[in-house]
Amino acid sequence: MSGNPTSREESFLVTGGTRLAGEVSVAGAKNSVLKLMAVALMAEGRTTLTNCPDISDVPAMAEVLRHLGCVVEISGDTVVIDTPADVGHVADDKAAQRLRASVCILGPLVGRFHRAVLSMPGGDAIGSRPLNWHQNGLNALGATTRMDHGRLVAEATELRGAGYKLSFPSVGATETFVTAAVLAKGTSVLENAAREPEIVDICELLTEMGAKITGAGSSTITIEGVDELHPVSHRVVGDRIVAATWAMGAVMTRGDVKVTGIDPMFIHVVLEKLRGVGAEVETGADWFQVSQQGRPRARNVRTLPFPGFPTDLQPMAIALASVSDGLSVVTENLFEARFRFVEEMVRMGVDAETDGHHAKIRGRERLDSATVWASDIRAGAGLVLAGMCADNVTEVCEIFHIDRGYSDFIGNVRSLGGQIERVDTHR
Ligand code: UD1
Questions:
Q1: Given this model, what pLDDT does residue 27 score?
Q2: How remote is the C-alpha of 122 from its chain's centroid?
Q3: 151 falls in which pLDDT band (50, 70, 90)?
Q4: Which atom of ligand 1 is found nearest the CA of 305?
Q5: SS (H, E, C) the chain
Q6: Distance from residue 103's CA to the centre of ligand 1 (Å)
Q7: Which domains does the chain have, with CATH numbers?
Q8: Mean pLDDT of the chain
Q9: What ligand 1 atom has the least distance to the C-alpha of 32?
Q10: Which range among 129-133, 167-171, 202-206 shows the weakest confidence by mean pLDDT?
Q11: Beta carbons of 189 and 221 less than 8 angstroms apart
Q12: Which atom of ligand 1 is nearest to the CA of 336?
């Protein structure tokens, strides 16, 4: 697994005009593995995670855990976390600021040790990402939380089971509440919980460790507190966002791609949308295949919490709209800054405008190659797909973002026939 973060000077050069075709398998989900690693803090001993993706956020999360006293070994697709009886409760500022997902240590630390100090986490530049609902959930369980010089401080003498209703089904706030409630005294009920497959994965790991949780994957999760958890071995759920990236690339390039290692129900809405633009889609238990002949038709897309269209695929939806026949309206309901991607598409000759939560895109048969900038993980992947539909060579800059979330991105694109190379523009 790559321990060294990609240099900010590295770019991808993408040659347009090739069709993505072939078979690709997806590794475990970034948005699950980082949380599962944090859950390992909740049990003394060795927790083993398999099917882990080779992404730079995994060693970054390992650093966060090491600073708390864990021994973390990464070998191939396996991560072993050895958690001591007592761990630190203050997250290292530098390590935590490197990744947004470091917030997921909050629930496990408060749950098991009744205290946590965390500097406001870093991560993608996709909009303001407050922690108020995380705090409210912890407060409901009896903790006190406050901001102190840019750090979130959470403390409790004991945690008591409680009811809490989220005003919006936030993924992170659901995880914080559930992980903290698992070791609380008594029963907790979370209403309007997030229903993402990664939430189910975390609840499955916790249950294997001895937690008593019902309703994961529905809007109401009930947690009966237990005294302690024990370490186990667990396989990380497949990455639906990576899987859908290849599906959308197949449609954009009029290709034919089979993706394995993923339950297609996790991206049911996306596959239905692709059928709507003209793709043929076949599905099996842990695979799907998408093929497209001719130019895709324009379709509107609205991002919503699961099971709706994922915000993490919004850049790919805009990239698809950019080569579709007609006018598409893409509505972003989760992260306000995610339309930065549209500016990059405009560089590639697309007729697009944004207005608040909406982007209107009139597609072109072929895009102009250009130098473009990845502002976050998914925007980076979307730009590479767009580059494959451009007339010449597109340079996608700041690809360290892509390496945070996609295992062997370049290898996968090449195995599907895409022409892409990594260059260090600083040399
Ligand atoms: C997670 C994913 C991210 C995905 C997102 C939505 C990880 C590491 N990241 O992010 O890839 O795009 O879910 O599917 O798993 N909010 C508040 N207050 C809070 C918490 C959230 O206002 O306390 C807002 C956010 O600003 C955002 C919305 O709620 O507008 C959704 O955020 P949330 O579901 O919590 O996303 P994350 O868990 O941060």
A1: 97
A2: 14
A3: confident
A4: 14
A5: CCCCCCCCCEEEEEECCCCCEEEEECCECHHHHHHHHHHHHHCCEEEEEECCCCCCHHHHHHHHHHHCCCEEEEECCEEEEEECCCCCCECCHHHHHHCHHHHHHHHHHHHHHCEEEEECCCCCCCCCCCCHHHHHHHHHCCCEEEEECCEEEEECCCCECCEEECCCCCHHHHHHHHHHHCCCECEEEEECCCCCHHHHHHHHHHHHCCCEEECECECCEEEECCCCCCCCEEECCECHHHHHHHHHHHHHCCCEEEEECCCHHHHHHHHHHHHHHCCEEEECCCEEEEECCCCCECCCEEECCCCCECHHHHHHHHHHHHCCECEEEEECCCCHHHHHHHHHHHHCCCEEEEECCEEEEECCCCECCCEEECCCHHHHHHHHHHHCCECCEEEEECCHHHHHHCCCHHHHHHHCCCEEEEEECCC
A6: 11
A7: 10-26+239-424 (3.65.10.10), 30-235 (3.65.10.10)
A8: 93
A9: 15
A10: 129-133
A11: yes
A12: 30
| pLDDT attached to residue 94 | 78
Q: Tens digits of per-residue pLDDT, 271-302?
A: 999 999 999 999 999 999 999 999 999 999 99
Q: What phi and psi, each to the nearest 5 degrees, are found at residue 342? A: -60, -40
From 170, 240, 245, 341, the mutation candidate for ligand 1 (largest count of ligand atoms within 8 A of CB) is 170
Lowest mean pLDDT among 59-63, 92-96, 280-284: 92-96
For residue 205, what are its two tokens? 């790991």
163 burial type by CB count under 10 A (0-12 exposed, 13-18 middle, 19+ buried): exposed
Q: In terms of Cα–Cα distance, which of 306, 330, 304 is closest to 319? A: 330
Question: Under a CB-based contact definition with an 8 Å cutoff, are residues 410 and 387 in contact?
Answer: no
Residue 14 has pLDDT above 90, yes or no: yes
Is there an atom of ligand 1 within 6 Å of 129 CB? yes
> Which tokens go with 104?
């997921």
In 3D space, the residue among 220, 217, 303, 311 whose CA is nearest the CA of residue 265 turns out to be 217
pLDDT more than 70, % of the chain: 96
Tens digits of per-residue pLDDT, 108-141?
A: 999 999 999 998 765 455 555 789 999 999 999 9
The answer to whether 242 touches 406, Cβ cutoff 8 Å, is yes
* Residue pair 289/281 in contact by the 8 Å Cβ criterion: yes
Q: pTM for the full model?
A: 0.95
pLDDT (0 to 100) of residue 426: 67
